[in-house]
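1st attempt posting a full record on here, be nice pls
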Amino acid sequence: MGQPEMLRKERSKKYASWQEEYNAKLCSAEDAAAAIVSNDRIAMSGGTSLPPGFSHALSKRAGDLKNVQLYMGYAMGLYDYMKPENKESFQIETVFVGPMERVCMEWGMAQYVPIHLGDTANFSRSRKVTVSASVVTPPDEDGYMNRSCFASFLDKKTIANSEKVVVEVNRETPWLNSEDFKIHISEVDYIIENHGPIFEVPEIVITDTEKKIAENIIDLIPDGSTIQLGFGGLGNAIGHLLVTKKDLGMHSEVISPSVQTLVEKGVINCSKKTFHPGLVVGGFCVGTRPFYDYINRNEKYLFKEIGYVNNIINIGKNDNLVSINNALMMDLTGQAASESMGSKQYSGTGGQVNFVIGSRFSRGGRSIMALNSTYTDKEGTLHSKIVSAFPPLTTITTSRNDVQYVVTEFGVANLRYKNIAQRAREMIAIAHPDFRDTLAFEAHKAGWL
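the predicted structure (as tokens):
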């Protein structure tokens, strides 16, 4: 037990009840923000767990504070501490890149930290976090609150070792079935009440291309498999098409509304799972208000910290684990660029490599990399996403040594244990027809064919 945690527990003893302690720690967002000092290092998780009231109040202290470091991922709101005019006061490091982070990086206000998402806890400890802040549910009858949808990005040990712990109570946030996400009144220093709607991600429209890719993927998922799905249109499409399958399980970073449909239809029943049988295991969740109501105290789900969910050994404890991830671009030898095209950081490594490697530890496991075969640039020109060489400065996310199945709307390539010539032929066969001759010419020129 670290000193900050010991001090909080010692101070807690003076209260006759958790209700008394709650009221004693209740304060305004401005009061909590006033406790922040220059050079503090604040971990605020991300997504719907990023506290809006505290964030607005902290932003108002721009100019008073210097060199406050903020650690987060996948922010769902733009706060003033993210703006370039406040660069002397605040700087952001993020372990995942979403729309807000991309804006902040363009402004020079944020830096991306290349990291496997499963290593987030070690990243937080390397930064010696001084302040932890999160949205929580109202307390239960025993004084425990729940850190909810994105709690897995901020581990309990980091919170315990923080000098100051701020929570923002919002009755609209769901209580997730998780011991990891619970936090007691005695474990916090400042309690803000700020009730209101939490961020929703509406049902993502499925494109015709995504539907075709999903149709090709479905055949690679046997009945009784345990699946991992990414977030987005493709994951949504796969989720909807899986209704023909039986006895599926799930062990995945993200839980989204398409999972709800599969559970309600009995497609995902986790009856064949070999790790946490009977339970859908997830790290975080995001969706619509009806989905949040559905997930609230739903005991069919088990949420764990991301370091547990994404641990390759834990992933491998699931027999017949099928990992499904997206790539932005792939080359003819099987390298996957899933986070950048050139130097432009679109996303992050996330848990892709965790699950690709983890599937190798799974008895009967397999991994699938999916991508649209083409993209259209701002001038309306069509380009292939399967290339002989990546644009300069493009990041390789998943090694060609680890890629197994690659799926586009034009078919499936199995690259495992294939030589370079075989790989090139398989990748050309699932490229858009308009680019196959050019790719074959470039493969010959490179000496691969």
